[in-house]
Amino acid sequence: MNFFPSSTQEIPPVGSVPRHIAIIMDGNGRWAKKRFMPRIAGHKRGVEIVREIITACTERGVAYLTLFAFSSENWRRPPEEVSFLMQLFLRALEEEVSKLHENRIRFRVIGDLSRFDPKIVALIRRGEALTADNTTLTLTIAANYGGRWDMLQAMEKMLAAQPEKRGGFTEADLAAHLALNYGHEPDLFIRTGGEQRISNFLLWQLAYSEFYFTDTLWPEFDAAVLDLAIASYRTRERRFGRTSEQLAGASRAAAASKNA
Ligand code: IPE
Ligand code: IPE
Ligand code: MG
Fold first, then answer.
1. Which of the ligands is closest to the CA of residue 41?
2. Which whole-number Å values give the CA distances from 205 to 37, 66, 108, 164, in the listed order?
3. Are 134 and 101 in contact (CB under 8 A)?
């Protein structure tokens, strides 16, 4: 079940640190090209940045970090690149999961795993089980993930679970079957690499997320750019459909009750 408040049904708490950051890590290929290196060199460097950003998010008290690693459309890339990305994923699973566990990080993967090598799937399941009770940060890797795939599979599961409810389903019924049903909706969505699009990432959950686009290529992303994104997030007025005046009224009422 999804026990997290939905941004369209309730007004989620807004703090100075985003509870959930979702990132489209884009620009690996262009970074490598600029250096006259093969695209795969950019992906390799990209994995190192992932490590740095996990640490930075832990230090900043972020509860959920969701990283788009491979989209359902990325199979359209040249076979050599796809196969290198799979090898990189396999190696990262072999080498990094125990380190995540040492740092008390919970590890999850969302996406359609049916196209992955069984060896990769086994490592994912083992890593998820090993780290299931960790509470420092929940790291989710979106692999062969597509927002449309996610909504469709959730609808299928929802219908199978309660066929008699047809005509009376709620948003919460569907959200309970989404791949990311164990986390808040992202407060902050970051896309590196200069493009300003969602590319079929978390279509449902980005309903009220704050967006931050940076030209920085993922292999050049670091804690300083993350802090710029968080600083920008802090300047946003999250209204969830309400007016500014309502927000001012609510904060005046909160201050008055604190002083009473
Ligand atoms: C993101 O970088 C990584 C993946 C999609 C796997 P890209 O490989 O898309 O890099 P660009 O956008 O071509 O520079
Ligand atoms: C989105 O990047 C997917 C990942 C970062 C994994 P793409 O590079 O695949 O997106 P498009 O094709 O530019 O939209
Ligand atoms: Mg790209």
1. 1
2. 36, 12, 17, 26
3. yes
Which residue numbers are catalytic? 26, 74
The amino acid at 195: E
DSSP 69: E
> Rounded to an integer, what distance in angstroms lies between the CA atom of residue 209 and that of residue 189?
6
Q: In tens digits, what is the pLDDT along the chain, a chain of 260 residues?
A: 446 778 998 888 888 999 999 999 999 999 999 999 999 999 999 999 999 999 999 999 999 999 999 999 999 999 999 999 999 999 999 999 999 999 999 999 999 999 999 999 999 999 999 999 999 999 999 999 999 999 999 999 999 999 999 999 999 999 999 999 999 999 999 999 999 999 999 999 999 999 999 999 999 999 999 999 999 999 999 999 999 999 888 888 888 887 77
CA distance 67 to 139: 8
Question: Which residues lie closer than 8 Å to 53 by C-beta, 6 or more apart?
Answer: 23, 65, 221, 222, 223, 226
State pTM to two decimals. Answer: 0.96
- Domains of the chain (ranges, CATH numbers): 20-259 (3.40.1180.10)
Nearby residues of 135 by Cβ (< 8 Å), 6 or more positions away: 104, 106
Q: Is the CB of 101 under 6 A from ligand 1?
A: no
Q: Which of 105, 138, 173, 178 is nearest to 20 (CA)?
A: 138
In terms of DSSP H, where are the helices of the chain?
28-34, 39-59, 79-102, 118-131, 147-161, 171-175, 223-234, 244-259
- Tell me, in angstroms, the distance from the centre of ligand 3 to residue 254's CA: 44
116 CA from centroid of ligand 1 (Å): 19
